[in-house]
Amino acid sequence: MMKTIAVLFLALGCCLCEPQNSGHIQQSGGSTSSCIPCSCPKDDDYLARKVALLESKLQKTEKDVSELRSLVEGRPQVAFSAALLDSGNGNVGPFPGATPLKYKKVFSNTGSSYNPSTGIFTALVKGMYFFRLSMFNQQIPTPKSVVNLMKNSQIVATIWDMGGTDLNDTGSNAVVIPLDVGDNVYVQLMAAAIIYDDSNLSLTTFTGFLLFTM
Predict the structure, then answer these.
(1) 39 CB burial (10 A radius; 0-12, 13-18, 19+)
(2) Minimal CA–CA distance to 20: which of 11, 29, 12?
(3) What is the predicted pLDDT for the residue at 147?
(4) Which of 3, 207, 208, 209 has the greatest number of beta carbons closer than 10 A?
(5) Which residues are in the C1q domain (predicted)?
(6) Domain ranges of the chain
(7) Are 149 and 187 in contact (CB under 8 A)?
């Protein structure tokens, strides 16, 4: 505490005196003193008010830093990103019915909300989330590629390609949506459709992260 007050006095340009054993003129109490020259008013009340003000500002700053640190450290961290195939390359599908895609090549999964065994992201925190999906279409032979981003059983966004004269196509889509705890988000391949990926290139991906809690 004394060190802090000394720093505050120096910031004010004030005199600081400390008892010494030698090398200075004797004072009435039998000790000597070493002083930093004064440049502040000779008013004890003035100095006391200044010190109190600076200490108050210091305490407020420390409180603000503590609150900011608690906000950062206490905020849930949720983010994942994965590609469809973790080895090899080729088409996935077709299936007789709409089927959730299992993105097996996991780049990141902070918060462990994404399950690569099912392809499903489950919200563990209520909040606003960002999701993005990309799709690659290898048109040999000319295929139909349709994928839906699903929230529970509802379609949120779609990527659609029916083929053409070019050899391949790619597409992407993204949304920002609110989720409650327990909501599921996944990518669904439509019936009779196919989708392509190459594990070395990661052409077909699924990504999501928490923007903020609610």
Answers:
(1) exposed
(2) 29
(3) 94
(4) 208
(5) 73-214
(6) 2-74, 79-213
(7) yes
Tell me if the bond preceding 41 is cis, omega within 30° of 0. Answer: no
For residues 159-174, average pLDDT = 78
pLDDT for 67-126, tens place per residue? 555 455 568 899 999 999 999 999 899 999 999 999 999 999 999 999 999 999 999 999
Domain 79-213 has CATH 2.40.10.220: no
CA distances from 108 to 74, 89, 141 (A): 20, 21, 33
Report which residue type is found at 39.
Answer: S
pTM over 0.85: no
Q: Could you give the CA distance from residue 214 to residue 127 in angstroms, rounded to a whole number?
A: 5
Which two three-digit tokens encode residue 101?
């895609």
Question: Could you tell me which of 137, 132, 133 has the C-alpha nearest to residue 91?
Answer: 137
